[in-house]
Queue: 2 jobs
Job 1
Amino acid sequence: MSLTVADLARGAMTEFQEKLRQQHEESMHRELEALLATANKEEAEISRKDFDGFKKLFHRFLQVKGPSVNWTKINRPPEDLIQPYDRIKAKGLPDDITTSLNKLVVVKLNGGLGTSMGCKGPKSLISVRNENTFLDLTVQQIEHLNKTFNTDVPLVLMNSFNTDEDTKKILQKYSHHRVNIHTFNQSRYPRINKESLLPIAKGMGLNGANTEAWYPPGHGDIYASFHNSGLLDKLLAEGREYIFVSNIDNLGATVDLFILHHLMSLPADRRCEFIMEVTDKTRADVKGGTLIQYEDHLRLLEIAQVPKAHVDEFKSVTKFKIFNTNNLWISLPAIKRLQEKNAMDMEIIVNPKTLDGGLNVIQLETAVGAAIKSFNNAMGVNVPRSRFLPVKTSSDLLLVMSNLYSLDAGSLTMSKKREFLTTPHVKLGSSFTKVQEFLKRFENIPDMLELDHLTVSGDVTFGKNVSLKINPNAFGPTKTNFKYCFKPFRKLKKEDLKVNN
C-alpha cells in the first residue's frame, strides 16, 4: 500500500505533536520540582501528592482535543436508571433505620469563598437565616438527626486552602454539639500560563506575587484528596459505607432517609454505588448538567462538553428534562477501589481566567458528578425541587430569609401558608449584589407568601411591613399576571408594594 503526501504530512504532524507534548510534560515536571524545593519537608510531602494528581490531569489535557462526546451517541437514560422519588419513598422505612444511619457520613463541599456576594472568608460563614450561617444550619440538621435516631452521623467538610484556616477557627464553637466534625483539604494546583503552559507560581507560598498563583481544582478532586487524607480509610474502619455529598450553600440538601434506605436495602450483588439526585429543569436551569446514556453507561453531560451546534438543543427543557442538583450518594468502598486502581474517569474542565494584571491563565478542574460512569449500578433519582435550594446570589438570599420558608432544626421547608408550589422568581439589581448593601436596603424582609415574580433595578430601599403579592386589580380586572419592576431613586413605601407578579 502506497502512502500519499497527505498521509506523510499527517504522520509528520502527529510525530511533531507527540514530541511537543513530551516537551511540555518534561518542562512541567521540572517547574513543579523547583516549586517543591521552596517548601519545608511537611508541606512538600503534601504538595507532592497534589502535584501527582495535577500531572495526571495535565497529561490528559495535552492529549484530549475537541468535544469529549459524540452527539450522535447520546441517548436518554432507560427509565429504570432514573427513578422517581415517589417510588423510592413508597418503600417506606424499616424499624431499624438507625442501623443504616450508622453507616452514613455527610460531606459538605466547603472550598468556596463569599467573594461573589461581597463577603470575605468562607462562604459557609455568611449568615442566611436568623443569624445562622450555612455551617450553623448544617450542624443543627445533623445534630437533630443524631438525637432523634440515637445515632452518630459524622460531618466532614472538604475545605480548600482558601477556607481551611477560618473554618477550623469557627469549628470550636460546635465542640458541645452532638456532631463529630472532620475536615480535609482538597488539593492545591498551580495556575498555568495560557501561552507557555507552565506554572505562574514562583514558590509554594500563598502571599505576595503568589496570591493568584494557586487554585482548588473543582469538587471532582474530592475522591483523590479524601483518599490521600487518610480520612477515607478511617471512616471505612468505623463501618461507614456511604457518603452523602452536597454543596454547603444548598439549603435543601438534607439527609433523606428514604434514599438512604433504598441504598441499604439492595442485594449485595446489585448494590448501587452512586446515586445522583436530579430534578426537573426549568428555564432558570438550562445550563445545568444532565444525565444521559452514553456507550452503555450513565453519564453526566455538562454544557462545556456540548458541541456549539447543539447548545440550544442541550438547553431545551423538552429534550433534556432534568438537571444535576449535585446531591450525591456514593459508596465509600467503591471510592477506595477506584482510587487504588487509578480508574476514576472524569472529564477535564478547562477554566480560562484573566488575572488582575491582565495575564491569561488556565485552571484544569473536574466535577464530582462526572465520575458517575466509573461506578457500578449507578442511577439517578428525580427528587422534588425542594431538595435544590442553593444560595448563590442576594436574590436567593432574600428568598431564604423571607417568610416563604419555615426553619426547624436547621432545615428550611416551604411555608404551609403559601398556596403555590413553586418558588417565586426574584431578580435584584446590582445595588443588592453585596450582602452588606443588600441588608441596608431592607428595614424588614418583606412578606413574600403571595409573590410570584419580582424584579428590582436601581437605587431602591424597602421600608417596614412591606408586603409583596399578586394584586389582580392593580392594572384592571383582566390583567392578573404581570411583572412589576421597581424603578430607582426612591424609597418604597407600604402602599407601593401591594402588587407583584
Note: The chain is about 30% helix and 25% strand.
Job 2
Amino acid sequence: GGQPNDWNQDDHVSLQPRRQRRTHVPDKPNYSLNLWSIMKNCIGKELSKIPMPVNFNEPLSMLQRLTEDLEYHELLDKAARCDSSLEQMCLVAAFSISSYSTTVHRTAKPFNPLLGETYELDRREEFGYRSLCEQVSHHPPAAAHHVISQRGWTLWQEITIASKFRGKYLSIMPLGAIHLQFHSSGNQYVWRKVTSTVHNIIVGKLWIDQSGDIEIVNHRTKETCQLKFSPYSYFSRDVPRKVTGVVADSGGQAHYILSGTWDDKIESAKIIQSSRGGSGSEGKQKTVYQTLSPKLLWKKYPLPENAENMYYFSALALTLNEQEDGVGLTDSRLRPDQKLMEEGRWDEANSEKQRLEEKQRAVRRRREAEASDALDEGKEYEGYQPLWFHQRRDSVTGETNFVYKGGYWEAKERKDWSMCPNIF
C-alpha cells in the first residue's frame, strides 16, 4: 500500500553530495637518522620524557591515533541492532580486535599531544557519530575520548600510555578501560587493551606485535568474551598475529568461538556441542567444541594505493589531519610542527616542536610556582583542569576516570572558542 514513491524515501537522503575527503598526504621524505645515537642515552627511561626529533614520528597525534579506533564503527552500528546479546558480544569483540589492524606497518610514533590539545572528528553526516579527544594529563600522558553515535551507541575511554625501552624492543602498555554502551538495551561492555611491542629498535627492520589477553564483560548480563593475542614466535607453526576467543554466558557456558588474525579478519562459529577431550599441554584437559561453519565478522580494508610512501596510513588516517573549518583552537589539525612534518618540512618541524615543548614547560613551571605560593599563603590551589572532561567515579568499574562533561559541540555551534588556552 501507501504512495508508490514512499518506499524509496531513504534513497533521497543519501543523494546530497558527500564531502570529498582527501586520499593522500605528501610522500614521506627520505631522511636518514641513526636511531641508536639518540636511544643509547635512554635505556630504562620513560619514553615520554625523551626529546625525540620528528624523524621517528608520523604526522598524526596520539589523539588522532585513538580516534582511529573508530575505523570499523559499522561493527558497532550492526551490534546495536542485534537482538541477541551473545551475537552482540561477538561483534564487540571483533571491533576491539579491529583497532589493531592499522598498527601492522605503523612503526612510527604519533606526536605526544600537548596538555589541553583536543581532536574532534565529526562524521555524523556520513556515519552517524562524532568523537572528541582531549589530552587531560601530561605526566603521565593521558587522553580522554568520548564518542556518541546516532546509530545507538556511546563509547568512552581514558588511556594512559606507559612505555618502556628494553634495549632491543619497546613495550607500549595502554592503561585504562574502554566503555561501550548500547542505548536501547542498556548493555554496557568494558575491556582493556593489550601490550604492543616494537621489535628491532636498534638494528634491522622495525616490526610490531600485539600480545596478551583481553576480557570483555557485558556488565548488564554478565556475559564474557576471553580473547587471546598470541605473541609471534619464530618456532611456532601457528599463523602469525593469531587471535582466538570464546564467548560465554553468565554461567560460563561457551556459545561462540572466535578466530582469526588482528591484521586481516575475524570469524565466529556457533558452538553446538562441547566435550572434554584428551589432556592438553601441562596436563590440563582440553575442551573440544563442535561448531557450525564459521561466519565472517570483520575483514580489514586494503591499504590505499601508495600507502608505503605515506606512513602506511589507512584511508581514514589519511583524512584525519585534513584542515577543517570551525574546529576548537586546540585541535591537533592546527598544531604547527605536525603540519610542517606532513608537508615534508622536517627541519622546520623539529625547531617548531622544540618551541612548543619549551612553551609547555614554561606554563608548567608557572603553575608549579603558583601552587607553591598558594601553599605558602595557606590558600587552596586548583591544579590544571581539562576543558571538556572531568573526573567521575565509574559506577561499573569503581575507577575514577575523566569523562566528557559536555559543551564542546555547543561551543562549536556558537563559534565561541574564547575558553580555549593558547597552546600552539
Note: The mean pLDDT is 91.
